[in-house]
Design goal:
Blueprint: H1 2-7, E1 22-27, H2 34-39, E2 44-48, H3 50-54, H4 62-76, E3 81-84, H5 112-117, H6 119-132, E4 137-145, H7 148-167, E5 175-182, H8 191-194, E6 200-203, H9 205-212, H10 231-247, E7 251-253, H11 261-269, E8 274-277, H12 282-291, H13 294-305, H14 313-322
Parallel strand pairs: 1-2, 1-8, 2-3, 3-4, 4-5, 5-6, 6-7
Bound molecules: phosphoenolpyruvate (PEP) and magnesium ion.
Length: 325
């Protein structure tokens, strides 16, 4: 299998009907960069910046952050990198940051909520990102955006930091793209307001599904009670894809789903063309992509979205088998 995936490394991911699918990887530490070339990944669709903070004994200084981001950009070369700003709080506790104890950490002051409440933390990180990407393309996205206001406020902080750098005569990134992660179900009903403010969005299906199904993703008693291949989940994803297509907003999926061939089959059938997966998922997903005839798959999938079943996994599997995927 491994050898087979290695042969696919330089083969572009194009479906049988000619649709180009972009396969990116998720990363978070410098060691992840080593696999970038082996997998044939087309870039980093999600760089989890909090990993550096989690393995550190103290708050990483501006210089340490800048150094890591520069290394990531260097390793990626011409390939795009999307940096996700700090996603800490909740269950990702940093011993050196005095956080209040929360009854429900997953619903607590995590990610962008912490970033907006303690702006010095987020501003420092944005400063490091802007500095590391001087003269290059910088893509930044904010985790756990639940309201349009939060995105607006976070984006304003990017502007403030750009002004700060400009006043000091620093070279800015040659191109700056600011995006939101879609992880809170509230956004599903406010995409019309959100999308015009973003340069791109990325769907974090791990969190989106845990919040949609009110089932803690880290709790084995409940995390398997629902199936991502279910009509509600697939319809939510379809809605996001459709709204993004309307506004011409680039959209990717960066949750674990994107790295599993059957789930990724469902995603591309719904119209997603950018998937960011753990490194090990790129080969298997690419092999799937090469075998798919999207128009035929789409006809089959449309019926499944109307099903009253809690899971359509078996049906998606049969569809894939019928189409020789
Ligand atoms: C997600 O929630 O799907 C996601 C990609 O972010 P993380 O897994 O880091 O929460
Ligand atoms: Mg998430």
């Amino acid at each position: 299998r491994r050898a087979e995936f290695a042969l696919l490394r330089d083969v572009p991911a194009i479906t049988r009907d000619g649709t180009r699918i972009t396969l990116l990887t998720n990363a978070g530490l410098a060691v992840d960069l080593e696999s970038l070339d082996d997998t044939g990944s087309e870039g980093i669709g999600l760089f989890r910046t909090e990993f550096q903070f989690m393995v550190s004994e103290e708050l990483p200084r501006l210089e340490a952050q800048t150094l890591l981001y520069r290394r990531v950009l260097d390793a990626a070369g011409d390939r795009p990198v999307t940096f996700r700003t700090l996603d800490i709080g909740g269950d990702k506790v940093l011993p050196y940051l005095d956080a209040e104890r929360e009854e429900n950490p997953a619903l607590g002051r995590r990610a962008i909520r912490l970033g907006l409440d303690r702006p010095s933390l987020l501003r420092l990180q944005l400063r490091a990102l802007l500095h590391a990407a001087a003269g290059r393309e910088l893509r930044v996205m904010f985790p756990m955006i639940a309201t349009v206001e939060e995105f607006r406020a976070a984006r304003e902080m990017v502007d403030v930091e750009c002004d700060w750098a400009r006043r000091r005569g620093r070279t800015l990134p040659s191109m700056l793209r600011v995006g939101a992660m879609i992880e809170a179900p509230s956004l599903l009903f406010h995409l019309d307001a959100l999308l015009p403010l973003t340069d791109f969005v990325s769907v974090g299906t791990n969190d989106l599904l845990q919040y949609m199904y009110a089932a803690d993703r880290t709790n084995p008693l409940v995390s398997d009670r629902y199936d991502p291949l279910s009509p509600p989940a697939l319809r939510a994803l379809q809605e996001i894809q459709a709204r993004c297509a309307e506004t011409g907003t680039p959209v990717s999926v960066c949750g674990e789903l994107a790295g599993r061939p059957l789930e990724a089959f469902a995603l591309i059938t719904l119209g997603f063309t950018r998937l960011s997966a753990p490194a090990g998922g790129v080969g298997p997903v690419k092999r799937m992509v090469l075998s798919v005839d999207l128009p035929a798959a789409r006809r089959g999938m449309t019926n499944l979205l109307g099903s009253s079943a809690g899971s359509v996994r078996n049906e998606v599997e049969s569809l894939a088998r019928k189409l020789n995927v």
